Amino acid sequence: MKDIFRYLQQIGQSLMLPVSVLPAAGLLFRFGEKDLLNMPAVRDAGMAVFANLPLLFAVGVAIGFSQGQAVAALAAVIGHLIFLAVLKSVNPSIDMGVFSGIVMGLIAAVLYRQFHQMKLPHVLGFFAGKRFVPIATAVAGVVMALLLQIVWPVIQLGIDGIGHLAVNSSVGPALFAAGKRLLIPIGLHHVYYPAFLYEFGHFITPDGTLIRGDFNRYFAGDPTAGIFMASEFPIMMFGLPAAAFAIYYNARPERRKVVAGLMISGALTSFLTGITEPIEFAFIFVAPSLFIFHVLMAGVSGLMTSWLDIHLGFTFSASFIDYLLSYKYGHNQLWIWPVGISIGALYFIVFHLAINHFQLKTPGREDESLPDHEPDTFRRAYNIVKALGGAENIKALDACISRLRVSVKQRESVRKQDFPALGAVGIMEMGTNFQFIFGTQSDGLKEEISKMIGKDFVEEQLTEAYVPTPIQDVRINAPVSGRLIQEGGRIPDYTVAIATRDDSCLAPAAGRVTQVCSNPASLLMRVEPHYQLMIQVELESPALSAALQFLVSEGQEITVGQKILSLSNPREHAESIVRINITGGKEIHITPAEEVTAGEDIIMQCMD
């Protein structure tokens, strides 16, 4: 059950990458309209994104499930294009919409995990490893198209039936808005809403194109669309900002200044952009009764917009910016203001009374108060790593718009009590998977933590005063003898090469082997304190590849000068190129020598 929950969360998170492009597409589309810039080319640029949402979803899901691997994204594109071509050939009437992209994105990611290190016979060596993934995905696209052309019509009937009920019922918008709010604490709202926005309902354009989903139909000019999206505007523009003001108003006087920074910025963010989680997680866990009220009010908002026949759309979220952008295509748009103001007033009254009557520990009223100042991103990221049990306890790290998502090795090592002081307004836990709600700073924290993990920053290397690591230098010895070639690069990434006739290669520094690859022949190693070293061998004759033999394995600690690779059947006068790439450090000095001797001459000196 936990695995299903985790995979659903990951799908929702993956969809956020392509969805984040929609605001830009919406701006292009809107500004290109006749009543603004009257530039059809700009309008068509925005429509190009809307028209290719399934392909964007395929790429997003593939990236999300493969830890950002470009090969998986390429495979998803190839697989999806082939899938659509075959499906159109065998059954032109089938239109899977965004589901086709999600399916092919998942398949591409699964095939990447399965085959990205696959080895083939030497004669087919070029197609081994990552190059095999797009090929496998192309075949899978054909197979899935042939399979789904049989199965999908039945599934589509079910989707159309549910969609018909939701579109034609006055409670449909209420179910959309309330269901989305209800699933926010567990992060599954991104899985819930795509069916409403991208599949439910259909519309035939004047040129005969079939358009599905509340979102697509709205911007294609369907006068019946926009009922689901309209239901969220009163909550995001009025309700939650009012709740934020109530939380600020009821904070202890000495804490109001700190709370104002959180709640006022949260209210403005909700009103202007529709990002609501920083406010919602300020009360979801400390006041479940207010969360229930919030879900019910979302349903009430949906009922009111439905009864008043309000139609509105958004490209990203139900915000004031999207209200302005989508105003032209709406219906009864001005009714949002009296509805929203009424709902906002009710939010403030209920939150104010509940916080005081039940002595709820909302921000500014908790026993352990918030920090007096906002720590810099580096300091906070470092403290987050410590609270997670150190870099060695972090198994996987990612972020969406407002959540830092972490998988750890030892759940017991996580100090959850430290996170409120670090700015987390909420914590979700499922086994060894955690979600920390840091709002819009989540992605920046993820990037900073990723750097720390990559450089092995641990407590011993950073003091409590956050003094940088003392200057250390690392000397890289020549792994082979021969002619030195400075290929160059930009600090902190630099490459040198040695043209050699040696039949063996020595370790240029002490460290731990992290990866060994036979095609192309390369070895990746970690050198203390935080350098990454890659040694790659390019043979004069590809026929010699089979004669290469690695003498070390992944995870092995090796010493400087240790033999790591040899040619089991060397040929005379066969020159090889050995490339040494180092990543890390602020200064890299290269020896000016033209000829170097293996194990004796220093070819690079790296310093922090």
UniProtKB/TrEMBL annotation:
Cellular compartments annotated: Cell membrane
CDD domains: PTS_IIB_glc
Gene3D superfamilies per record: Glucose Permease (Domain IIA) (2.70.70.10), Glucose permease domain IIB (3.30.1360.60)
Main location: membrane
Catalytic residues (UniProt): 400 (phosphocysteine intermediate)
Molecular function in Gene Ontology: kinase activity; protein-N(PI)-phosphohistidine-sugar phosphotransferase activity; protein-phosphocysteine-sugar phosphotransferase activity
Record bears the keyword Kinase: yes
Domain (PTS EIIB type-1) ranges: 378-459
Domain of life: Bacteria
Transmembrane segments: 12-32, 44-63, 70-87, 93-112, 132-155, 233-251, 258-275, 281-303, 335-355
Bilayer topology term: Multi-pass membrane protein
Residue span, PTS EIIC type-1 domain: 2-367
Protein name listed in UniProt: PTS system, glucose-like IIB subunint
Source organism: Pelosinus fermentans B4
